[in-house]
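Re-run requested by the PI after the first attempt was lost when the workstation crashed. Everything re-entered from the original request form. Ligand of interest: protoporphyrin IX containing FE.
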Amino acid sequence: MVLTIDFGGISTTHVVIGAFVTWLLLRYFSAKNLRHIPTVGGPSVPILSIVALYNFLANGKKVVLDGYQKFKGRVFKVALLDRWLVVICNPRLVEELQKLPEALVGYSLLEIFETKHIFGADLLTDPVHLALLRTLTRNLGQVFGDMYQEVETAFQELVPANEKEWLPVHASPVMRTIVTRAANRVFVGVPVCRDEGYLYLMVHFAEDVNKAFGLYTVVPSFAQGFVARKAKAVMDDCIERCLGYMRPAIKDRTTMMDSFGDNWADKPNDMIQWTIEETKARGQGEYDMARMLMFINSGAVETTSQAVIHALYDISMRPELADELREEVERAIAEDGWTKDATNKMRKLDSFLRESQRINGPMIVSMFRLVREPVTLSDGTFFPAGTTIASPTLGAHFDDTIYPNASTFDPLRFYKAEAAGQPQFVTTSPEYLTFGHGKHACPGRFFAVNELKAILAYMLMHYDIKPEQEGVRPENKSMGLGVLPNPDAKVMFRKRHAG
Ligand code: HEM
């Protein structure tokens, strides 16, 4: 069917053809500079490269794993819609790249996927979120009690199992709500962290941002500005709604600050307070306070929710492991109560969570970086300016030479190796990329690991857990560059006697 809408002589057919030609030219010129890098998934010559693109979009996971096997120790490229993505399959080169100065190889998901248009380009030059997350990490011990209390209250409300019958629980929405409540207890406190409208806003906003990142990888660059403008309008609306919940607290806090300066008795120690202080110091107002909170939520909610759901599916399949972890949790809380110190002692739980994330994602590649100036690596590999590069998360995580029997889920893999100096869940390396690696590794991971341990430890101590279908772990879904936990599955919960 021919498109017939007419805009003063220019038909939509012209627009579509023009866009397609522009796209082909963009692809042609970007591929020309990267001819020396082998392509995986299909040919890189103009027009035919659409096959490589199709294969990547249809089965990105297989394409990247095949590429890793074939070009281990070297680099290869795969087709995204608007550019080529070069994947570095050599830990030494990954380490070398992440040490290069920012002026040569820059970081930012915000920049690479143009989401700076949504969150604001000033976050690139003045990353307030990093200052806030550093403060959060420093205060993990102090905020743990509140977070744990929220985990407890949320489970009691949302998973009201009894000792007699198994209760089917739809894992995806329930765990998302628990994660969002626990994090937002520390971010905005009670009662906002329990408000259904606020929770709905944060959960769906985080999901949408995740989808937007995915969308940017398949939308050609000439269309990204348009998508970004639409997304910005949605963002502004979300900020206004977020402010509706935050204004009373902002007003109270600013009144206290105006009266008492930096310190007063019972001054709250939470994200909203730190955000007010950081934004005020920059002469910014309430719009920026909400913007910052939403940006941090967008990093915190979806990733941690997915990790909890994966861990829940994994533990539901392993009752003996659940018992072994319960013993460890019991011992730790007997010594230190429900505190951050106790979670530090939960080494088997740490290993289980790290293994669950090794196997389950969240992305098939990570550590996106942008080559700003031409770079030649020590092995002679050359990247022209403008090249987008990434590290092969899934390839490394499933490499038998790095992890013996890599495709086997071995929950105590890292615990058993600890004597040999094996790292913990928060530790990143070119071989363990769940949180990225290097100077731009996830700044929220220390909080994330504490939250994950609090949730899993609570769950283990208070419930017996089994899969809905005996012996069947709900299958993951691949979407673009992402690996998602099954969104439809239920898990069975029964209250434990000892709970
Ligand atoms: C299991 C949970 C989490 C996972 C798997 C995860 C993963 C990641 C990854 C892979 C990156 C990119 C790193 C790189 O390119 O080297 C990242 C960045 C980021 N994460 Fe996380 N994250 C998690 C939890 C959190 C939490 C709880 C927060 C906030 C409290 C957070 C805030 C952020 C922010 C703000 C960035 C962007 C940093 C920047 O722009 O410099 N994340 N995360």
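Saved to the shared folder this time. The domain at 12-495 is CATH 1.10.630.10 (Cytochrome p450).
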